[in-house]
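B., you asked whether I could sanity-check this one before it goes into the benchmark set. Here's the sequence:
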Amino acid sequence: MTDYPHSADYPSPQLRVEALEALLVERGLVDPEMLDGFISRYVNDVGPMNGAKVVAKAWVDPDYRKRLLESGTDAVKELGFGGPQGEHIVVVENTPTLHNVVVCTLCSCYPWPLLGLPPNWYKDPAYRSRVVREPRKLLGEMGLELADDVEIHVWDSSAENRYFVLPNRPEGTEDLSEEELALLVSRDAMVGVAAVKAG
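And here's what the prediction gave me:
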Protein backbone atom coordinates (compact mmCIF):
# COMPACT_ATOMS: atom_id res chain seq x y z
CA MET A 1 0.00 0.00 0.00
CA THR A 2 1.06 3.58 -0.52
CA ASP A 3 2.68 5.43 2.35
CA TYR A 4 1.40 8.96 2.14
CA PRO A 5 3.87 11.79 2.86
CA HIS A 6 3.48 13.79 6.04
CA SER A 7 3.83 17.55 6.19
CA ALA A 8 6.34 19.24 8.47
CA ASP A 9 3.45 20.12 10.78
CA TYR A 10 2.50 16.47 11.25
CA PRO A 11 5.42 14.12 11.87
CA SER A 12 5.08 10.49 10.89
CA PRO A 13 3.13 8.21 13.24
CA GLN A 14 6.36 6.39 14.12
CA LEU A 15 8.01 9.62 15.30
CA ARG A 16 4.93 10.57 17.30
CA VAL A 17 4.85 7.16 19.00
CA GLU A 18 8.56 7.40 19.83
CA ALA A 19 8.09 10.89 21.27
CA LEU A 20 5.13 9.74 23.37
CA GLU A 21 7.07 6.72 24.64
CA ALA A 22 10.06 8.91 25.56
CA LEU A 23 7.79 11.30 27.48
CA LEU A 24 6.05 8.50 29.38
CA VAL A 25 9.39 6.86 30.26
CA GLU A 26 10.91 10.20 31.32
CA ARG A 27 8.02 10.82 33.71
CA GLY A 28 8.29 7.32 35.14
CA LEU A 29 4.84 6.29 33.96
CA VAL A 30 6.02 3.43 31.77
CA ASP A 31 8.83 0.90 32.01
CA PRO A 32 10.51 0.64 28.57
CA GLU A 33 11.28 -3.06 29.09
CA MET A 34 7.61 -3.72 29.84
CA LEU A 35 6.62 -1.88 26.65
CA ASP A 36 9.15 -3.83 24.59
CA GLY A 37 7.90 -7.08 26.10
CA PHE A 38 4.28 -6.19 25.36
CA ILE A 39 5.06 -5.35 21.74
CA SER A 40 7.18 -8.46 21.30
CA ARG A 41 4.41 -10.63 22.73
CA TYR A 42 1.84 -9.32 20.26
CA VAL A 43 4.17 -9.42 17.28
CA ASN A 44 5.78 -12.82 17.95
CA ASP A 45 3.74 -14.83 20.45
CA VAL A 46 0.12 -13.72 20.44
CA GLY A 47 0.09 -13.71 16.69
CA PRO A 48 0.35 -14.48 13.93
CA MET A 49 1.74 -17.84 15.07
CA ASN A 50 -1.42 -18.46 17.07
CA GLY A 51 -3.51 -18.23 13.92
CA ALA A 52 -1.03 -20.38 12.03
CA LYS A 53 -1.44 -23.10 14.66
CA VAL A 54 -5.21 -22.95 14.22
CA VAL A 55 -4.86 -23.30 10.44
CA ALA A 56 -2.42 -26.21 10.68
CA LYS A 57 -4.68 -28.02 13.17
CA ALA A 58 -7.65 -27.60 10.81
CA TRP A 59 -5.61 -28.96 7.90
CA VAL A 60 -4.68 -32.18 9.71
CA ASP A 61 -7.78 -32.75 11.85
CA PRO A 62 -11.11 -32.87 9.93
CA ASP A 63 -13.16 -32.89 13.14
CA TYR A 64 -11.41 -29.76 14.39
CA ARG A 65 -11.87 -28.11 10.98
CA LYS A 66 -15.61 -28.77 11.20
CA ARG A 67 -15.83 -27.27 14.69
CA LEU A 68 -13.74 -24.28 13.56
CA LEU A 69 -16.09 -23.51 10.68
CA GLU A 70 -19.18 -23.99 12.86
CA SER A 71 -18.00 -21.92 15.83
CA GLY A 72 -14.67 -20.19 15.37
CA THR A 73 -14.59 -18.61 18.82
CA ASP A 74 -15.12 -21.93 20.62
CA ALA A 75 -12.70 -23.83 18.39
CA VAL A 76 -9.82 -21.38 18.83
CA LYS A 77 -10.42 -21.47 22.60
CA GLU A 78 -9.74 -25.21 22.43
CA LEU A 79 -6.16 -24.27 21.54
CA GLY A 80 -5.98 -21.67 24.30
CA PHE A 81 -6.53 -18.54 22.21
CA GLY A 82 -9.07 -15.90 23.11
CA GLY A 83 -9.57 -12.73 25.08
CA PRO A 84 -10.11 -9.10 24.05
CA GLN A 85 -10.52 -8.67 20.29
CA GLY A 86 -10.91 -12.44 20.07
CA GLU A 87 -14.62 -12.64 20.66
CA HIS A 88 -16.99 -13.54 17.83
CA ILE A 89 -14.43 -15.18 15.53
CA VAL A 90 -16.02 -16.27 12.25
CA VAL A 91 -13.87 -18.55 10.08
CA VAL A 92 -14.32 -18.53 6.31
CA GLU A 93 -12.69 -21.23 4.21
CA ASN A 94 -10.93 -20.79 0.89
CA THR A 95 -11.56 -23.42 -1.77
CA PRO A 96 -10.20 -23.92 -5.29
CA THR A 97 -13.14 -21.87 -6.61
CA LEU A 98 -13.70 -19.36 -3.77
CA HIS A 99 -11.24 -16.92 -2.23
CA ASN A 100 -12.04 -14.96 0.92
CA VAL A 101 -10.47 -11.66 1.95
CA VAL A 102 -11.08 -9.63 5.10
CA VAL A 103 -11.36 -5.89 5.65
CA CYS A 104 -12.80 -3.56 8.25
CA THR A 105 -14.31 -0.69 6.29
CA LEU A 106 -15.18 1.44 9.33
CA CYS A 107 -12.03 1.20 11.42
CA SER A 108 -9.64 -1.73 11.92
CA CYS A 109 -11.46 -4.55 13.72
CA TYR A 110 -9.05 -7.47 13.71
CA PRO A 111 -8.65 -10.78 15.60
CA TRP A 112 -5.62 -9.76 17.68
CA PRO A 113 -5.31 -13.02 19.68
CA LEU A 114 -4.90 -14.93 16.40
CA LEU A 115 -3.00 -12.49 14.19
CA GLY A 116 -1.23 -10.07 16.51
CA LEU A 117 -1.16 -6.37 15.72
CA PRO A 118 -2.87 -5.35 12.48
CA PRO A 119 -0.46 -4.26 9.74
CA ASN A 120 -0.47 -0.62 8.64
CA TRP A 121 -1.91 -1.45 5.22
CA TYR A 122 -4.97 -3.08 6.85
CA LYS A 123 -5.84 0.26 8.47
CA ASP A 124 -5.07 2.31 5.35
CA PRO A 125 -8.16 3.98 3.83
CA ALA A 126 -6.95 2.95 0.36
CA TYR A 127 -7.04 -0.76 1.28
CA ARG A 128 -10.35 -0.41 3.11
CA SER A 129 -12.11 1.10 0.11
CA ARG A 130 -10.37 -0.61 -2.80
CA VAL A 131 -10.70 -4.17 -1.52
CA VAL A 132 -14.45 -3.71 -1.60
CA ARG A 133 -14.61 -1.97 -5.00
CA GLU A 134 -11.91 -3.85 -6.92
CA PRO A 135 -10.67 -6.82 -4.88
CA ARG A 136 -9.14 -8.77 -7.76
CA LYS A 137 -7.09 -5.81 -8.95
CA LEU A 138 -5.94 -4.89 -5.44
CA LEU A 139 -4.98 -8.47 -4.58
CA GLY A 140 -2.99 -8.64 -7.82
CA GLU A 141 -1.11 -5.48 -6.82
CA MET A 142 -0.37 -7.10 -3.47
CA GLY A 143 1.10 -10.14 -5.27
CA LEU A 144 -1.87 -12.52 -5.25
CA GLU A 145 -3.01 -13.37 -8.77
CA LEU A 146 -6.28 -15.32 -8.84
CA ALA A 147 -7.73 -17.10 -11.86
CA ASP A 148 -10.72 -15.44 -13.47
CA ASP A 149 -12.97 -18.35 -12.48
CA VAL A 150 -12.17 -17.96 -8.76
CA GLU A 151 -14.94 -16.06 -7.00
CA ILE A 152 -13.80 -13.47 -4.43
CA HIS A 153 -15.84 -12.85 -1.30
CA VAL A 154 -14.99 -9.77 0.80
CA TRP A 155 -15.89 -9.99 4.50
CA ASP A 156 -16.31 -6.79 6.53
CA SER A 157 -15.10 -7.30 10.10
CA SER A 158 -16.74 -5.46 12.97
CA ALA A 159 -17.01 -5.63 16.74
CA GLU A 160 -19.79 -8.21 16.23
CA ASN A 161 -17.80 -10.50 13.90
CA ARG A 162 -14.07 -10.71 13.37
CA TYR A 163 -13.37 -12.75 10.27
CA PHE A 164 -10.45 -15.14 9.89
CA VAL A 165 -9.54 -16.91 6.63
CA LEU A 166 -8.75 -20.62 6.59
CA PRO A 167 -6.44 -20.73 3.55
CA ASN A 168 -6.05 -23.59 1.10
CA ARG A 169 -3.47 -26.17 2.10
CA PRO A 170 -0.77 -26.12 -0.58
CA GLU A 171 -0.06 -29.20 -2.63
CA GLY A 172 3.07 -31.12 -1.74
CA THR A 173 2.65 -30.74 2.03
CA GLU A 174 1.08 -34.13 2.72
CA ASP A 175 4.14 -35.40 4.62
CA LEU A 176 4.58 -32.33 6.82
CA SER A 177 3.75 -32.38 10.52
CA GLU A 178 1.27 -29.99 12.08
CA GLU A 179 4.16 -27.93 13.47
CA GLU A 180 5.85 -27.78 10.06
CA LEU A 181 2.62 -26.75 8.40
CA ALA A 182 2.13 -23.90 10.88
CA LEU A 183 5.49 -22.44 9.84
CA LEU A 184 4.20 -22.06 6.26
CA VAL A 185 1.17 -19.95 7.22
CA SER A 186 1.54 -16.18 7.08
CA ARG A 187 -0.60 -13.48 8.65
CA ASP A 188 -1.44 -12.20 5.16
CA ALA A 189 -2.82 -15.61 4.14
CA MET A 190 -5.15 -15.54 7.16
CA VAL A 191 -6.41 -12.10 6.10
CA GLY A 192 -6.78 -13.33 2.54
CA VAL A 193 -4.28 -11.15 0.70
CA ALA A 194 -1.78 -13.96 0.11
CA ALA A 195 -1.72 -17.70 -0.51
CA VAL A 196 0.18 -20.29 1.51
CA LYS A 197 3.11 -21.74 -0.43
CA ALA A 198 4.69 -25.13 0.10
CA GLY A 199 8.08 -23.60 0.80
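One thing to flag: The CA atoms of residues 58 and 66 lie 8 Å apart. Otherwise nothing jumped out at me.
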